[in-house]
Design a protein that fits this description.
Blueprint lengths: L3 H4 L11 E6 L2 E7 L5 H5 L9 H20 L6 E12 L8 E12 L2 E10 L2 E13 L3
Antiparallel strand pairs: 1-2, 2-4, 3-6, 4-5, 5-6
């Protein structure tokens, strides 16, 4: 299986995927196990902590970046950067002890643009979904 740390540049405390459980064709499934001690969970509604929606999306984007790195043969071709977010929907709160299943799929490619969709699931139920576009960018 692909090494996450070689595939994408993200590192702690902003690495939001723990392992890849499936990678084939145009799809990836990754896992993130939340830890109640994460700083963001301590500060995002301290009396009722939940995973922020933007970080749920970011976790999906990181899984997608691993998929793109695998498909194009590593990140030496450029870093996948999100250029558009569309139709983000949040259906279920993600709690501090949840394990999130992150799914991303490449649905189309037009030139340098990669059109993708993703989901975050908890216990098999969709908690969030998003459509997004990525483009490879050179490191500065």
């Amino acid at each position: 299986m692909i090494d996450i740390l070689k595939a994408i540049p993200h590192r702690e405390p902003f690495l939001l995927i723990d392992k890849i459980v499936e990678l084939k064709g145009d799809c990836i499934v990754a896992i993130k196990r939340l830890n109640p001690e994460m700083d963001v969970l301590k500060g995002h509604y301290p009396d009722f902590p939940i995973m922020p929606g933007v970080l749920i999306c970011e976790a999906i984007f990181q899984a997608a970046a691993v998929l793109l790195s695998w498909k194009i043969g590593g990140n030496q071709m450029g870093l996948p950067l999100v250029t558009r977010i569309k139709d983000a929907k949040f259906k279920k709160m993600i709690m501090p002890t949840d394990e999130i299943s992150l799914e991303a799929e490449l649905t189309d490619q037009v030139g340098p643009a990669f059109y993708m969709k993703g989901k975050a699931k908890v216990n098999g139920e969709t908690a969030a979904s998003v459509l997004f576009t990525c483009k490879l960018s050179n490191k500065i």
